[in-house]
């Protein structure tokens, strides 16, 4: 599957402009995380790479783009979420690791690959970062700092829907400290701020 096909899938599944922006943000971040983790993979304990690992930048970006592709279509039903996307991906012959990573971000498949663990952690963090941008006077990502995100992270009443526990799996599942993970995610989003409209 190509990025163009993934974007067409988002269109076919009738995603709103905001959901497309979330998909793009996660796609950009996943691409960056793939690069980061692949360069670190030789340092990972063997059990962390027990499943055959793919560090294909395009595959990681596609997981970011499509992880929530049917969220609105299924009326945000967690029971139905990812089912339509899975169907579409199977029709296109997408790699099973992509399907498993997408299903894993809502606990419908075990998160066995770095790809699956990365989308699980960054999904919620991108939302928190967007919320941090929207409270800036200019509503721009360039005004957001790692420190401001971490401060809002501690404020449980801010962006309540962004699961802090899920974000913190960057430490337990990916072995990346929260501050570093936030820095990687924020930088990836800031570099593509124009495409995100932020």
UniProtKB/TrEMBL annotation:
Residues 21-125 form the HD domain. SUPFAM superfamilies: HD-domain/PDEase-like (SSF109604). The lineage of its organism: Bacteria, Candidatus Curtissiibacteriota. Gene3D superfamilies: Hypothetical protein af1432. InterPro entries: HD_domain. It comes from the Bacteria. This is HD domain-containing protein.
């Amino acid at each position: 599957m190509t990025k163009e096909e993934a974007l067409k899938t988002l269109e076919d599944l009738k995603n709103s402009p905001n959901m497309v922006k979330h998909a793009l943000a996660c796609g950009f971040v996943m691409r960056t995380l793939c690069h980061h983790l692949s360069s670190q993979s030789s340092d990972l304990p063997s059990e962390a790479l027990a499943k055959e690992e793919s560090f294909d930048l395009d595959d990681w970006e596609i997981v970011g783009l499509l992880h929530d592709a049917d969220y609105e279509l299924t009326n945000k039903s967690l029971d139905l979420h990812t089912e339509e996307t899975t169907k579409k991906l199977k029709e296109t012959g997408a790699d099973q690791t992509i399907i498993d990573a997408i299903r894993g971000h809502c606990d419908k498949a075990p998160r066995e690959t770095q790809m699956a663990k990365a989308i699980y952690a960054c999904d919620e963090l991108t939302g928190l970062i967007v919320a941090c941008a929207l409270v800036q006077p200019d509503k721009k990502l360039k005004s957001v700092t790692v420190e401001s995100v971490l401060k809002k992270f501690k404020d449980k009443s801010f962006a309540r829907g962004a699961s802090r526990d899920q974000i913190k799996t960057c430490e337990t599942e990916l072995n990346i400290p929260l501050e570093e993970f936030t820095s990687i995610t924020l930088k990836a989003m800031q570099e593509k701020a124009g495409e995100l409209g932020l």
